[in-house]
Amino acid sequence: MIKRSFLGLVKPKLxxxxxxxxxxxxxxxxxxxxxxxxxxxxxxxxxxxxxxxLSKGDRVKTGQKICLSSDSTxxxxxxxxxxxxxxxxSIGDFGTTYIAVSIEVEPEDVFDEAFQERxxxxxxxxxxxxxxxxxxxxPFGAFFRENASIDTLCIMGVDSDFLSTTxxxxxxxxxxxxxxxxxxxxxxxxxxRIVLAVPAGADPQLVDLGAEVREVFTRYPHTLPQxxxxxxxxxxxxxxxxxxxxxxxxxxxxAVAALGEAMxxxxxxxxxxxxxxxxxxxxxxxxxxxxxxxxxxxxxxEIETQELDRIVFxxxxxxxxxxxxxxxxxxxxxxxxxxxxxxIPPISQNPCINCGxxxxxxxxxxxxxxxxxxxxxxxYDEAADLYDLHCCIACGxxxxxxxxxxxxxQYIRLGKYELERMHAAEAxxx
Amino acid sequence: xxxxxKFIVSHAPFWHDGxxxxxxxxxxxxxxxxxxxxGMIQYGMPAVGVVSLxxxxxxxxxxxxxxxxxxxxxxxxxxxxxIGLLFAMLLPATSPWWMVITGTLVAILVGKEIYGGIGGNxxxxxxxxxxxxxxxxxDLFDFDxxxxxxxxxxxxxxxxxxxxxxxxxxxEGFTPGGLLMGNQIGGIGSTFGLGIVAGGIYLALRGIIRWxxxxxxxxxxxxxxxxxxxADGARYAGPLFHxxxxxxxxxxxxxxxxxxxxPVNFIPMLIYGAGGGILTVLIRNIGVxxxxxxxxxxxxxxxxxxLDKLRPKALGKVI
Lengths: 430, 319
Description:
The complex is a heterodimer.
Chain A: E1 26-28, E2 34-40, E3 59-60, E4 65-67, E5 75-77, E6 82-91, E7 97-105, H1 113-119, H2 124-129, E8 152-156, H3 166-173, H4 175-189, E9 193-199, E10 212-216, H5 225-233, E11 248-252, H6 253-265, E12 271-277, E13 283-289, H7 294-301, E14 310-313, E15 320-322, E16 335-339, H8 357-361, H9 368-376, H10 380-386, H11 397-401, H12 408-429
Parallel strand pairs in A: 1-13, 8-9, 8-11, 9-10, 12-16
Antiparallel strand pairs in A: 2-7, 3-6, 4-5, 6-7, 12-13, 14-15, 14-16
Chain B: H1 21-43, H2 45-68, H3 79-90, H4 97-112, H5 125-136, H6 143-146, H7 159-166, H8 176-180, H9 193-206, H10 211-231, H11 239-244, H12 248-255, H13 266-286, H14 293-307
Helix pairs in contact in B: 1-2, 1-3, 1-9, 2-3, 2-4, 3-4, 3-5, 4-5, 5-14, 9-12, 10-12, 10-13, 13-14
């Protein structure tokens, strides 16, 4: 955990620790006996009865597409060959619901012919219909939105949060796959400008990959997409808009490497690279099948968890805590870390004392001290109109530095969520 | 597959930089100690008594009010102790006991608790108490009368009173160096300029107070006093005299910078501090009160919410 420096006058320097030189020691997690895949259901309550066209006992092959009955754009590809063991509902945060498909794994992979066949004629439709489920979750859906005009692809060769070295690992060790992936992206999307964001001081030979190489800060929060838009392209994302609205899509390096691998072998690469940090704060690089329960990874790395510890998928600033060791690795999970119960910083009921730390650290220049007063009182509309709620880029630094230990960022997320819900309800009744 | 272990589930961020309200208050108490200890040495046991009574009574009031209002007990966070200590630092060493406990009651009740406790107060609680006491029992803040029994190797005359009544020539005996070293009479903890400045610099470096406010306050005092001095050197004392007498230094580092009642954006901080400094000298030089710090800061406290509306445009804000 990064502590406040003795001289509190200086802003905390939130540098990402550099990736160790030389070869990474990477461990492969053995294929588990069971994997679980999660399909996010649409928020629309009319589609609550959504399910998948699979039931217990059905056989799935590696790379087979599993999609929702109502909406075939919500899909995943099976990372293993095996038999469906259970199809059950599951819930996430902020009312997200999932369908969890558990598969009993067979030791030998049988690759799905439909996927292999389809990979022979790569086109935009393939990207949309199959490739969004690749490890790293490439956001191909962005190209098919209404009024989408994407002219720039940015590949993230930097990790956006702490405790993750996954993207930098891929950048250093999967150059071949990356190069093929970049070529593949050009054919699939037709976008000319592909920018590769790399940490400062990266290998100059990266130019050979065929993308425009640009060095970026590895200081949090400058690694977040909204701020990278500023550093790389000099564009500011207007409040309430996304980078995609400005014509830029961010791909993780892992997604591009996975695409390269899929193009090369015509098979679905079901593995992903993860940075796992244990309680002793040593980081391990592992590869695991998508859908592996996190328990299997802990078992292999001999990380012990106890009651009231915290398991986090993603980084310490932007990740999300999970409630069970059965939680599966998702295609976009870059990092997993365990926090010992004694190291979990408590939050408090203190009111804001107006010390101004959050205001000074906020990269979006939001008056957080005022914002949090409105959010605490549940006055979300005013928070958005008067105090720039929608300008928040979700870096979490306000909660990180809060002297009163108010869960500010949680209030912000709740406020955004409630506003979205209110507006959706208004739209439905209009 | 039910999982027997229960994990803590919460939202990001999962790290915290370790800062805490309690640490902040304790470090502020620590920073105030040099000036307080100097006052205790200078004025002896009466000063020790006033400080002890102020700190303890402030904490007791806070505890009682927490209980009465059925709120969580917050005396552990050090804020009540800090309010009591700062209150004692402004008083003459011979203040009667009833005045001290009345003052701390006003500070804690009227200054802080009725607004909902820490963070809700629009004014500095101690300043509210001092202002009310100054208006109620004016004589008790007459330092010349209060400290008449003391004998020091410097003039036992309250510098600001001498200036007000006799003009600039009467204070020519006070050298800036002597004033800074505490060779003057005044509040228990407000005369040892060097100690206050050292404490203030410590707090600023630790990031506990906002240096912009202190610096602009001192600059406001200095520049305004300089203008008066240049205009009429016989009536108005020089800028250094104003910096090192009365409550100027303690005001700059311990009162103007109180979190809840001061702005957080850069330009508002400068306006707030400078405004306080200018008003201080205006009250001293052309007002009826000897020292203007208390009222100047209370007035700037009122302006704080308005000042903080001057803020930079948020990232990507569309109007």
